[in-house]
Specification:
Residues 311-336 have a biased composition (Basic and acidic residues). This protein has 26 helices and two strands. The protein is rod-shaped and about 190 Å long. With 720 residues, the protein is mainly alpha-helical. 61% of the residues lie in helices and 1% in strands. A hairpin with a 5-residue loop joins strand 1 (557-559) and strand 2 (565-567). The chain has helices at residues 11-22, 26-57, 65-68, 80-83, 95-109, 111-115, 127-140, 142-149, 170-182, 202-213, 235-270, 272-352, 365-381, 384-394, 401-417, 431-448, 452-457, 468-480, 488-500, 507-519, 522-538, 573-589, 620-633, 657-669, 680-686, 693-719; strands spanning 557-559, 565-567.
Length: 720
């Protein structure tokens, strides 16, 4: 067995619930039900009694003269209610009224009654009695009576509310119209909504018109069907006639629906309540619209306030950022200005210290150019604190020139030791010697521990600063080893380390620096171009077939056996070549030559001079070459007594006449008293295409030293 929930229904359950609800027994409940049924029967009897009383109240109308003369065969056009004397009640007549009227008429018009009558009625036949019988048969059948009522032209239909009720209020004028039309509704007349009053609500009025716009009528118009004529019955004729009758009924029903719809439309348009409701709806709609507009205005105002506040905050933020940038810029400018001041101070102090030489000693222009260039390179890599420290140490009055030179030498060695400078760019300050010691140590360490380099590169320590030469080699290696090469960045790092002699950097450092170079730092790009130009001028000594096209009276460059360029000036070529061979041989054997002797263009012997402190022996031949190149490209003036002192490449001497003219024009356009926007030397450098600010400064210094040396030589010659 399965337990299921069952819902009890039916009269027995209702009786059970009734007994439980009222706490009755079976007998008490049966007695109560019997009393209820008796009360309902009494109410029905009372209703029937009222109908009888109403039936007894009405009077049968007298016969109409037209009905008395009517032919019984023309029964379909007769007024059945008028024939029975119910012309006023018509569709409101009850079945009891119809029976009473029929009995009354039969007592008068029955043929048996008329046969014994005398007077005017004696001449009548039984035609009216037949019409009376036809009327009672039709009105006694509910179906046939409804068919007849659907086409019965009642007197109320002649009422026109627009004409007859023009002087009446709307409700009173239109109430009879909807009451007469309500008799055709399929809904019980008690449930048909009333037209209401002027105080009816909008929902009641809308329900009223909604009912009539969806009105369902029981009118069938079958009473208007055409009957068959005399003659034999034909099935096809019957079907044809039935089809025509059906089409005619549909037509009449459609016309009646259109008539009723027009009637409802007219009432709806004239109903003053609908105008009030429309006005209320319009006001409500306008109120909602106004509310939406007010909300939109408020939202707009809130948005504008928020936007203004955000803009104000943004402006404050931008103002703060701008002030911060200005402060940072001012701080950077102040720092740069301080660095320039300290660099200038160091240069002035070293100039006063005769660039590290003993008092009374003079340095050749070519060597001075190299010294100043390397000094500028070293000072660029020092911080402001280091410059201030060096400046304070150099300012000590008790220090000799050699001690001051030693201070710079220590600073240069520290830069090389920390990997911040290329040792070969600081040869005047002993940087190359420190680099060689470091290289040997690195070589031994790498031989003993092969994984030292990889472990140090991956230790996460901050990498050392890139030199200009390393950046130039990085650019060259990136072009030489394009994308797609196996282990490209490790290969580029090895290439840079191989050509600089520095420890190999890790791939991440190389990638980071490559991205920084691609973004284009102007200062770094300028330094790289300067280095490339210097390397190009250095390589000219190794390619005798390539010469610079320098304007002016400059003697050509000749190459002797050891590839040392000298200036050929007429009859002194052989002597100069011989002297150069001896000087080159002597300098290659001596680690630190104390002096050298040369002859000027006229063949005079120069006095001995002291060279820069401790140059490397490996750089002497190159220094001799560059010194000879400087002498060859110098202006056609009496040469300095120490014009062939070993030194670096005289880049400031390699200027064409056109560039010299542009430089002079720039110096005139931007004199020291110039107070325009920007840096004066930047403007001068812009007036000389292909030259940087640093190159212009070195050129001016070089020319100043040349003038000084010429004046010194002139004073020495006049003293002799």
């Amino acid at each position: 067995p399965i337990l299921e929930r069952i819902e009890p229904v039916g009269p027995q359950y209702l009786a059970h619930a009734r007994r439980k609800l009222f706490n009755r027994t079976f007998s008490e409940d049966d007695e109560h039900v019997t009393k209820e049924k008796a009360a309902e029967a009494a109410a029905e009897a009372a209703r029937l009694a009222e109908d009888d009383d109403g039936m007894m109240d009405f009077e049968v109308e007298p016969d109409h003269k037209d009905d008395l003369r009517r032919d019984a065969k023309d029964w379909k056009t007769q007024d059945h209610y008028r024939v029975l004397g119910l012309g006023t009640l018509r569709w409101r007549a009850t079945p009891g009224m119809i029976k009473k009227a029929h009995r009354t008429k039969v007592l008068i018009h029955h043929p048996d009654k008329k046969s014994g009558a005398s007077g005017g009625n004696a001449t009548h036949d039984d035609a009216f009695f037949k019409c009376l019988q036809r009327a009672v048969e039709l009105l006694s059948d509910p179906i046939k009576r409804r068919q007849y009522d659907s086409v019965d032209p009642i007197p109320e239909e002649s009422y026109n509310p627009l004409k007859d009720g023009a002087d009446l209020p709307f409700i009173e004028a239109w109430r009879p119209v909807f009451e007469r039309e309500a008799r055709f509704s399929v809904v019980d007349r008690k449930n048909v909504p009333s037209i209401g009053t002027m105080d009816s609500t909008k929902e009641q009025v809308e329900a009223f018109y909604g009912f009539w716009y969806g009105f369902e009528s029981w009118r069938s118009f079958e009473y208007m069907d055409k009957e068959e004529g005399d003659g034999p019955e034909n099935r096809d004729d019957k079907r044809y006639l039935e089809k025509k009758n059906k089409a005619e009924r549909a037509k009449l029903k459609k016309e009646d629906a259109a008539r009723l719809r027009k009637l409802v439309d007219t009432a709806f348009a004239l109903d003053p309540r609908m105008a009030v409701f429309k006005e209320m709806d319009r006001e409500a709609k306008d109120a909602k619209k106004k509310e939406r507009q007010e909300q939109a205005v408020k939202a707009k105002q809130v948005a504008e306030r928020e936007a203004a506040l955000a803009k104000e905050l943004q402006e404050e933020k931008e103002s703060e950022e701008r002030i911060k940038r200005d402060e940072d810029r001012k701080e950077k400018e102040a720092r740069k200005k301080a660095i320039r001041k300290e660099k200038k101070n160091v240069k002035t102090l070293m100039k006063d210290a005769n660039y590290g030489y003993s008092k009374g000693k003079h340095i050749a222009p070519a060597a001075l150019e190299i010294y100043l260039s390397e000094l500028e390179t070293m000072l660029d890599k020092l911080s402001l604190e280091d410059l201030e420290k060096i400046g304070s140490e150099l300012s000590a009055s008790k220090k000799t020139n050699e001690e001051k030179q030693k201070i710079l030498t220590i600073a240069a060695q520290n830069l090389v030791r920390d990997g911040l400078a290329n040792p070969e760019s600081l040869t005047q300050f002993g940087g190359d010697g420190v680099e060689r010691v470091v290289r040997q140590t690195d070589t031994k360490a790498s031989a003993s521990t092969p994984t030292a380099a990889s472990s140090s590169s991956s230790s996460g320590k901050p990498t050392k600063e890139w030199s200009v030469e390393e950046v130039a080699l990085l650019i060259k290696a990136a072009n030489k080893f394009p994308g797609g090469v196996s282990d490209r960045w490790d290969t580029i790092a090895g290439y840079v380390a191989l050509h600089t002699g520095l420890p190999q950097r890790d791939a991440e450092d190389v990638i980071k620096k490559s991205k920084a170079v691609q973004k284009g730092a102007a200062q770094e790009a300028t330094a790289v171009r300067q280095l490339q130009f210097q390397k190009k001028t250095y390589d000219i000594t190794d390619a005798p077939s390539i010469r610079y096209d320098i304007e002016g009276d400059v003697p050509p460059v000749a190459v002797i056996d050891d590839n040392t360029p000298v200036a050929t000036t007429g009859t002194t070529d052989a002597a100069a070549v011989g002297k150069k061979k001896k000087a080159g041989a002597g300098s290659s054997k001596a680690a630190a030559p104390s002096s050298s002797t040369t002859k000027d263009v006229k063949g005079s012997t120069a006095s001995e001079t002291s060279p820069a402190p401790a140059p490397s022996t490996s750089t002497v031949p190159a220094a001799a070459k560059t010194a000879a190149l400087a002498a060859a490209t110098a202006p056609t003036t009496p040469a300095s007594p120490s014009a062939t002192v070993a030194g670096g490449p005289p880049a400031a001497a390699l200027w064409t006449a056109a560039e010299q003219k542009l430089l002079e024009a720039g110096m005139k356009a931007y004199p020291p008293s110039w107070q325009g926007e920007g840096d004066r030397w930047d403007k001068i450098a812009e007036s000389v295409p292909g030259r940087t600010k640093k190159e212009c400064k070195l050129r001016v210094k070089y020319l100043q030293e040349q003038v000084k040396m010429q004046k010194a030589a002139a004073s020495t010659g006049s003293g002799r």
